[in-house]
Amino acid sequence: MNRKNALAGLWLIGLGILFLVDFFWPGILILIGLSMIISAYMKDEPGSLPPSKTAAPVAPAVPEEPLTVEVEEKVVGAAVEAPLPAVLAGEGERLYLTSRLPEKCPACDAPMKANAEKMARDGDGTVECLFCGYRLTV
After folding, report:
1. Quick one: 19 and 71 in the same domain?
2. Is residue 54 a part of any domain in this protein?
3. pLDDT, tens digit (0-9, with 9 covering 90-100), for 5-64
4. Could you give the CA distance from residue 1 to residue 118 in angstroms, rounded to a whole number?
C-alpha cells in the first residue's frame, strides 16, 4: 500500500466518522495530525514518481587567460588622461566598453553587457564582475 492510497483512505473514513458523530471541529485537527504522521512514516513507491531529468551541473568555463585588448591613451598636452569609470565616461567610451564585454562573465555566467553601465573600468584596462569579482581585461 503506498502513501497516497493510505492518505485517501484515512481522509475518506475519517471525514465519514466525523460527520457521523458530529465531532467535526476538534476531530479535524486529529485527522490532520494522523495524515501528517502517515506522510512522515510511509515512503512513496519507487515506481510512483515520474522520471526526473536531473543532469550533473556543469561548472562554468573559466578562460585560461583573460581577454586582452589594448587601450589607447588620450594625450592632452603633455599629461596622459586616465580612463573614467563607465558611469562618468562619455557616450562613445561607454559604447566601446559595452561592445568589448562578453555577454556573460566567464567565471560565474552573470550578465556583463547588461550591467556595463554600473561597471568601472580601471586605469589598467580591466573591468571587475559585479557578482563574483572576476577581473577581465578589456
Report:
1. no
2. no
3. 889 999 999 999 999 998 888 899 999 999 999 888 887 666 555 555 555 566 666 656
4. 59
